[in-house]
Amino acid sequence: MKFLHTSDWHLGRSFHRVNMLGAQAAFIDHLVATVEEHRVDAVLVAGDVYDRAVPPLPAVELYDRALHRLAGLGVPTVMISGNHDSAPRLGVGAKLIEGAGIFLRTDPAGCSDPVVLADVHGDVALYGLPYLEPALVKEALGAPKVSHEAVLGAAMDRVRADLAGRPPGTRSVVLAHAFVTGGQASDSERDITVGGVEAVPAAVFDGIDYAALGHLHGCQKINERVRYSGSPLAYSFSETDHRKTMWLIELGADGELVTAERIDTPVPRALGRLRGRLEELLDDPALDAHEDRWIEATLTDPVRPQDPMARLAARFPHVLSLAFDPEGREDDGAASYAQRLRGRTDQEIAEDFVAHVRGGGHADDAERAVLRGAFDDVRTQAVSRETLR
To answer: Which segments constitute the Nuclease SbcCD subunit D C-terminal domain (predicted)?
Structure first.
């Protein structure tokens, strides 16, 4: 049986200031074409369908079109809610649309209620485990404590119990949305540490033929049977080196992985990360390939240049992010704010502030004189108020 594993669509999300709805629509087109081309038996969407709990209307319309197109192909789609989704909203009408072959799993109580498909080798049970917020589902799942490992373990115990009661040889697939130990994170995933230890061991999925994971945005293999599809589009510059794909998985007669192929997804525009002094970035011919990319630039000039964004945009018209990391800047390390100020005068602190906002350029003599005069005026006014009392 052949599955297309995808996740983390984040419909409605932008990339810095760029609206990504067109790129997300192109991905849906590609998804549908892939299902047809490879004669996929089921589509698995492992959470974070939307980018936020109340998505914008265009994102909802795109989601609606995607479901209609998948249903029109007659290919079952199993979809779970992720930590970005509102599970109750995503699950509205779930029972009604099952007749169209769309199976939404957003209620933790239904984690042991699989979608059962069949081929010439027998049944395949697909279990959808929505994102499990430990503090909210501990009691319902009978977990021993409030942690991601505990609640996911409790849900998997229910899955294994249901599987044990099915005909011998029933193959199994689990969809889950979690941070599994060994996974590589990026900057664009929302932190899920609130509510307990975030990482869960891959062993929690022992006994399952394939675990289709969502949450981490890089396509990766935890082990042969536990994999992340990653997001179909890049949503942060930390994903510059990602190859965005979906997993095309084929399970054999005994639940073995016959094939596990990465299917590339459309790239709206390549990403680039540049670092160096402004003039070097503007003059370096080796950077010609970056001129059509979305760019994150980090300038290392000791003194912040004039109009850096405009000057960068003249060569790199798609520059989206600009940061400063001046060469030679002192590293404050882990010292606290109070420790850094201890023993320093008001004048020295003010001069340090000038250097900080300039990205390393210290106050000159005239500016130091202005600061000194300002402090003198403040002290004079303070003395006058005390005298009047």
So the answer is: 268-356
* Count of residues making up the chain: 389
- Summarize pLDDT for 229-257 with one digit per residue, the tens: 999 999 999 999 999 999 999 999 999 99
The mean pLDDT of 135-155, rounded to a whole number, is: 94
Torsion angle, alpha carbons of 277, 278, 282, 286, to 10: 20
Torsion angle (degrees, nearest 10) of CA 53, 232, 104, 93: 60
Q: Which domains does the chain have, with CATH numbers?
A: 2-264 (3.60.21.10), 271-388 (no CATH)
Environment class of 105 (CB within 10 Å of its CB; exposed 0-12, middle 13-18, buried 19+): buried
Mapped onto helix, strand or coil, the DSSP state of residue 315 is helix
Contacts of the segment 58-64: beta carbons below 8 A, 24+ positions apart: 58/12, 58/21, 59/11, 59/12, 59/21, 59/24, 60/11, 62/11, 62/21, 62/24, 62/25, 62/28, 63/11
pTM: 0.82
